[in-house]
Specification:
Elements (H helix, E strand, L loop, with lengths): L1 H26 L6 E4 L1 H6 L2 H38 L5 H55 L3 E4 L13 H12 L10 H4 L4 H17 L1
Parallel strand pairs: 1-2
Length: about 210
């Protein structure tokens, strides 16, 4: 009798244990009212983000090239001015040196402004992307039966099943594509503003040398 009871009890336990996986499977990934996204990954891996970042990188490289050229020109001018110093009256040298310093300051201000403009365009590209993404996010929200999408950085811990970053990026690529291309600023208009200072310094140095 005791053996039969133990056998029946063991069978019941096995039956319960066998049923646990199916119960667990039914409870996995329920519809969640909250979804999360990784904003950085969403933007960086989207077609829009890749296009915008490629444009910004090209502008940054062009500015760096321009800065290198200007630096080389100013270094050569400064060297020439220093070499001519022993043969020049002190007041004449001081005037040329002050003019040179003033132009260097102006050039640095102009180049810093260009760098800030590039940074502003990068921020604006991200803002434009997420503004355009809002209707697509709303569609995904409804499709998932959710009521809110949170940045995953604002969530302490969450189930991986509520991360909608990949689904969102795929939908955004399909709907928005690479987004609107922004025409790059004409390079021929950006560089002359920096080039004349170096040329002017050369002309001034030539006139001063002739006077001596």
């Amino acid at each position: 009798m005791g053996g039969r009871l133990r056998g029946l009890a063991g069978g019941a336990v096995l039956a319960v244990l066998a049923a646990v996986p199916s119960l667990a499977q039914e409870a996995v990934a329920p519809a969640s009212p909250i979804l999360t996204i990784d904003q950085e990954r969403l933007y960086d891996q989207s077609l829009w983000g890749k296009r915008a970042e490629a444009e910004i990188a090209a502008e940054s490289q062009a500015l760096q090239t321009e800065n290198n050229r200007i630096e080389a020109e100013l270094t050569a001018e400064e060297k020439s001015l220093t070499e001519r110093r022993p043969t020049m009256p002190a007041p004449d040298f001081r005037k040329l040196a002050d003019d040179f310093d003033q132009r260097v300051t102006g050039i640095r201000t102009a180049q810093d402004r260009k760098a800030r403009e590039i940074a502003t365009r990068r921020d604006q590209a991200r803002q434009d992307f997420f503004t355009a993404a809002l209707p697509v996010m709303a569609d995904l929200l409804r499709a998932r039966g959710a009521v809110a999408i949170l940045d995953n950085r604002a969530v302490f811990v969450s189930a991986r099943s509520i991360d909608a970053t990949d689904d969102m990026r795929q939908r955004l690529d399909e709907v928005l594509g690479a987004g609107p291309e922004r025409p790059a600023p004409p390079p021929d208009q950006g560089q002359p503003g920096a080039a004349p200072p170096a040329d002017t310094g050369g002309d001034t140095g030539g006139d001063t040398g002739g006077g001596n």
